[in-house]
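#structure-requests
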Amino acid sequence: MSINPGITLEKVTLSIQGRNRDATMVQQDDLGKISWLLDVKSPEYQFNEYFGVNLLLHTSNFYLNRQSIPKIFSNSPSVINSSDEDSGSSEPNDSGKKNRRVIEDVYTNVEGRYSMLVPIFYLGNPDTFRFGFGFGPAHVKLKGNVDFKDPASNLLLIYSGPSRNDFLNHVSAYQFASGNINPNTDPTLSYLVANLSSGNHLELTAYYLASQGLLRPDLAAVTIFQSGKYNALEALAPSSKKMDTHMN
């Protein structure tokens, strides 16, 4: 058995899909990111001179801090200025779809670790060259948040009710009905969101999200604040990235 800790240059992309929405997380570095790895390889078993098998345990980590978003949601001046130029160009469908998205830091991140246990079957002479292939179980653990930029949810936040209680009750119902809040992974946030219209739970929710570095203003927060029914801290909570999607 051999144990080989080390570092590797990996390019990881994470695609999240569900409930008719999707998000794609990528790394900051275009060429990949150096990360640690651990390979544990069992002794080789030879079926014959040119065919054998061994068992490989591989584990590695990754950190993704850029997200692919529609260009219309970009806050980058260079992207905004180029939008008018792109709108007048004629392009094939595939390239047009790619040009309608940009990769930016929108204050979301996902970190994780994956491990896999794979039997590797190989062909060839161990002294010269051989080719291997394998398949087996894998385990991936993710933690972080993504932004689905769902226009429907923003409209709901802004126009869901004439009174403060109506608004907050609709926000609570939407978060749970959409599966964005999971009591099993975050019971504190689940309790606060379930009782947004009671006492100072909305403000406490903002403090809780701020403690995790996930409180950030956006257009919905500005609109909520301008209604005059909420202070600045309360306005930030409903549109927080954490309440869009949290993974643990």
